[in-house]
């Protein structure tokens, strides 16, 4: 009798799960799945309470789904990753496990952890396999003619598209086991009462429902609606993808099934799935980004500000720029922020306030349900012009123009900055201080002058003598 253990991490589902499938490949094998809570590690990696609660909330449903396959789900707790090798060694020995399966991680700390676990279980005569799961095309496969990783999105995408035909079809649940040597004790999860729970039902079933609904009703208008925060025109699947309640192959399959529908919507959504792969390929190929170093090393010499007062105003959504404040307040209410707002808010922090982008990156990690090192770091470095943005550093988002363009009627602002709800579409994007006073509206004046802030940040970037050479090498590395 072959006994297998499947170690679940950010892959909390039972369908299209390569590690589960591999463990169940032998019809005779008995399989147990394990999920380890690591509170100290979460803290070290800046994972916030909402994200942790969202991940945990998926466990009872997953336990039931696995139980129907005769697979027990064990949930245990260790303080942090350093304790996992010993925990695994103890349990593979106690349960006489032949093989441990998990999905490959690309972050430095996680790779070290997995290597230590493989060594620890090997001492108990247990093998360990890491399978590709998180990307459509695994990191390391999309390379230039010279065999180097791409560092700019457009050429990466061109090459990435040629690999898509090889993406395996999404699979269903693995075949049920005949028996299991364990009964996992029932997982209990305290229900969160926080406001984000109204927007994000947890678990695999909720994720699949959302995917089907998005493909059926929203994909056709996605290319345009995705940029307008009020229209809710994007899939809102990122939290489910981040904790793995759904696989990216299931997304691709649903997209392909949609077939002859609106081509621009489908192409545009595929483009976003490609960005997701791109940032993970970057993280895997350039591990320094895991250490919070700038992708463009020269920009680490920029004299970033570390002003805690200004940073607090930004975090609280009291900058006096309504679209920026609306984005940051959406983050507080939903533990999620629309992509356009993420770009505007990140640009405002890094460019207008010239505050260290790493502070913003950490704030997002701590508050987003979809917190993901690769996508978050990539997004922040893109906005701060320290990373893989093909647009030069002097592109600085104007928050008022962005607001007029992407929230023209001001409806999104009205929803999240209710003190401005009575303002008309003309004045809501940059309210006049005298008018606010006259109407008795308590809303802060703009905390800076955008034109001056823009001049300041451009001067700082120009001052980096080595930047141009670094950027040139980035652009030529296609
Ligand atoms: C500063 C900044 C920080 C970000 N931090 C994160 C993060 O921590 N986690 C995260 O998942 N995304 C992050 N993003 C990317 C993007 O904002 C979100 O993925 C997107 O808003 C999720 O909404 P959606 O699911 O409706 O996306 P859709 O538009 O429906 O896109 C489908 C999926 O593609 C992926 N995706 C879309 N855009 C991007 C992108 N630009 N980069 C990488 N993947 C993308 C997501 O998994 C998303 O669910 C960040 C972007 C910026 C600018």
Give the strand line-up of the largest sheet.
3-2-1-4-5
Q: Could you say what the CATH architecture of the largest domain is? A: Orthogonal Bundle
Assign a percent range to the helix content. 40-55%
Q: Identify the bound ligands.
A: flavin-adenine dinucleotide
Q: Give helix and strand order, one letter per element, not per position.
A: EHEHHHEHEHEHHHHHHHHHHHHHHHH
Report the sheet-strand fraction: 5-15%
CA-CA gap between termini:
51 Å
Q: Assign the CATH topology of the largest domain.
A: DNA Cyclobutane Dipyrimidine Photolyase, subunit A, domain 3
How would you describe the overall organization of this protein?
There is one protein chain. With 478 residues, this protein is an alpha/beta fold. The chain folds into three domains: 3-133, 3-Layer(aba) Sandwich (Rossmann fold), CATH 3.40.50.620; 134-167 and 204-285, Alpha Horseshoe (Serine Threonine Protein Phosphatase 5, Tetratricopeptide repeat); 291-476, DNA Cyclobutane Dipyrimidine Photolyase, subunit A, domain 3, CATH 1.10.579.10. 48% of the residues lie in helices and 6% in strands. It has 22 helices and five strands. It has helices at residues 18-23, 39-44, 49-57, 59-67, 84-94, 108-122, 153-163, 204-218, 222-225, 238-243, 248-258, 263-285, 308-316, 322-334, 339-352, 357-367, 373-384, 399-406, 411-416, 433-438, 450-462, 467-476; strands at residues 3-8, 30-37, 72-77, 99-103, 127-131. The protein has a five-stranded parallel β-sheet with strand order 3-2-1-4-5. Strand 1 (3-8), helix 1 (18-23) and strand 2 form a beta-alpha-beta unit. Helix 5 (84-94) runs parallel beside helix 6. Mean pLDDT is 94; it is low at 472-478. Flavin-adenine dinucleotide is lined by residues 226, 234-238, 241-242, 272-273, 275-276, 279, 339, 342-343, 346, 364, 368, 370-372, 375-376, 378-380, 383.
